[in-house]
Write a structure and sequence with these properties.
With about 280 residues, this protein is α/β, with parallel strands linked by helices. It has 3 domains: about 45 residues; about 60 residues, membrane protein fhac (Ubiquitin-like (UB roll), Roll), CATH 3.10.20; about 140 residues, Rossmann fold. The chain is built from 9 helices and 11 strands. The strands form 2 sheets. It has an 8-stranded mixed beta sheet with strand order 5-4-6-7-8-9-10-11, covered by helices on one side. The protein has a 3-stranded mixed beta sheet with strand order 1-3-2, with helices on one face. Helix 1 runs antiparallel to helix 2 and helix 3 runs antiparallel to helix 4. The longest helix has 22 residues. It starts with about 30 loop residues before the first helix and ends with a helix.
């Protein structure tokens, strides 16, 4: 940006064109003037394309490349990439998908194509790319929420709130996400997990949420207990469990199984008494 001079006009000596070093660009051109010149060159190239067909298209490509390179020499080359809205784990994959490199001509970047590559990354729900001349690229993304770790057919994947896998996410780095197991678990986890999240006492005890016959859920607790939910009306069934726990502290006492599949009857199977071998191993 040219320096501002305070206090009235002042004559400035201009170098003679004959004394300017060969190949050096004219001094004093503002970025706006440079962009106007580039727009004129590209408009002329487009007119040539319309007039001459394929040969003109090749001429346009050559002209565009030449303009990009010239602008790069004038300082319009990539120096910094800023990513906003992405977690530390997602950022490297997003930058890699952008496919840019230092000193790349800024005006030659295809932002639409770049956005499509970034939105193909599993972490990314939506992306917006802004070119900040002369030398900065801003990538703003909305990241997919990580809902759960899904385990099925020997594979373990992180899934988002729509059940879509995030292939770039390492499940081992998400130990606090709930574990969902079984066919159909990914597609339907988003329906039941928000209901369970409202019950932190139960969630803290849950080991895994198991999809049964792609119809309903079993909750396996960390102490080995099993809670069988109905195929429909999970929230009502969990409300029944809450009432039972308020009356009897069943979650603290422990049980073998609670069957909530029949809304009229809550069936509880107590945990079998510990045998002599179990008491001995416990030191009793």
């Amino acid at each position: 940006m040219p320096a501002a001079v305070r206090g009235g006009s002042q004559a400035t000596a201009k170098p003679s064109p004959s004394r300017r070093p060969k190949g050096q660009p004219a001094q004093g051109l503002a970025p706006k003037q440079i962009l106007l010149i580039a727009a004129g060159v590209l408009a002329l190239a487009a007119a040539v394309t319309l007039a001459t067909g394929g040969r003109g298209e090749r001429l346009v490509q050559a002209s565009t490349t030449a303009v990009d390179n010239q602008f790069g020499r004038l300082g319009f080359s990539l120096a910094a990439v800023h990513v906003q809205g992405a977690s530390a784990m997602a950022r490297p994959d997003i930058v890699r998908a952008a496919g840019v490199f230092k000193d790349q001509p800024m005006l030659g970047l295809d932002l639409q194509e770049m956005r499509e590559r970034i939105e193909a990354v599993g972490w990314v729900k939506e992306a917006r790319i802004i070119r900040l001349l002369p030398d900065t690229l801003m990538i703003r993304v909305e990241e997919r929420p990580q809902l759960a770790v899904w385990q099925h057919a020997g594979r373990t994947l992180v899934i988002d709130d729509k059940g879509r896998p995030i292939p770039e996410a390492d499940p081992g780095r998400f130990p606090n996400l709930p574990l969902v197991v079984g066919a159909g678990g990914a597609e339907h986890a988003g329906e039941v997990l928000p209901v369970l999240a409202q019950r932190p006492k139960l969630m803290n005890r849950m080991e895994a949420l198991v999809r049964v016959d792609d119809r309903r859920w079993d909750l396996r607790l960390k102490d080995g207990s099993l809670i069988q939910l109905p195929a429909a009306g999970e929230e009502e069934a969990l409300a029944q469990l809450e009432q039972l726990d308020l009356r009897s502290r069943i979650l603290e006492i422990g049980f073998d199984r609670i069957d909530l599949r029949n809304p009229e009857v809550v069936a509880v199977r107590p945990r079998a008494p510990a045998g002599p071998a179990q008491l001995a191993s416990a030191g009793v």
